[in-house]
Amino acid sequence: MKIKTASFVISEPNWKDCPKPIIPEYAFIGRSNVGKSSLINMLCNNKGLAKTSSTPGKTQLINHFLINEKWYLCDLPGYGYAKVSKKSRAIWQKMIRGYLINRENLMNTFVLIDVRIKPQTIDIEFMQFLGENDVPFSIVFTKSDKIKQKEVAANVKAYQNELYRYWEELPPFLVSSSEKALGKREILTYIEEINPLFKKPL
After folding, report:
1. In Å, what is the CA distance from 191 to each residue of 24, 33, 140, 147, 179?
2. pLDDT of 92-131, one tens digit each?
3. Which of 28, 37, 78, 104 could form a disulfide with 50 if both were Cys (CB 3.0 to 4.6 A apart)?
């Protein structure tokens, strides 16, 4: 798949205000500062599409983009560390969970993990939440250009071993680098393969 058009649609604080669920949708989420906006911009060939910042917690709303006039890309607020109040974090958590559980056309949630960092409890717990609520997801390891490829392989393996403590079967995983455009073809191909499975809600 090639992304020819990517346009901003709407930012909203509540899943009930999202665009009508008449086409397939894919969400991107991860801990703050995992490189989510850079990955989205790389996939869409548009450096200014999603807002990037060195300050964690830049994304604070549910952001929708229409891709190729055929499917939605949803940029969700990050979870974990961000320089915001506990009240704001609680609001984000409610917003994110409401979206993930209720969004009818959500085909897959890409959970972003910094490949340089050892498995974190907050990531494991988030994925357990997805599994317990039957939310389909896959894992995208980011920033693979920041370390040697042997380290990437070793860290991915370590993460898989950690996940096997909780699941007998693991979700799909991909390795990416926004700077090198690594993983772009694999992620877009994955979306292209799932799109035909979409059924409009009754």
Report:
1. 9, 24, 13, 27, 21
2. 788 899 999 999 999 999 999 999 999 999 999 999 999 9
3. 37
Q: Are 30 and 39 in contact (CB under 8 A)?
A: no
Residue type, 86: K
Which run of H or of E encompasses 140?
strand 137-142
In terms of Cα–Cα distance, which of 28, 32, 26, 35 is closest to 115? Answer: 35
Task: Note the pTM of the prediction, 2 decimals.
Answer: 0.92
Sheet harboring 25-30: ordered strands across?
6-12, 62-67, 71-75, 25-30, 106-114, 137-142, 173-175
Partners of residue 177 on adjacent β-strands: 182
pLDDT at 79: 79
CA distance 29 to 36: 7
> What is the residue-wise DSSP string for 142-168?
E-GGGS-HHHHHHHHHHHHHHHTTT-S
173 neighbors 190 (Cβ within 8 angstroms): no
CA 182, 185, 188, 194 torsion: positive or negative?
Answer: negative
CA distance 29 to 27: 7
Residues 92, 85 contacting (CB under 8 angstroms): no
User: Which pair of tokens denotes residue 107?
Assistant: 């085909």
Alpha-carbon distance of 48 to 37, in angstroms, equals 9
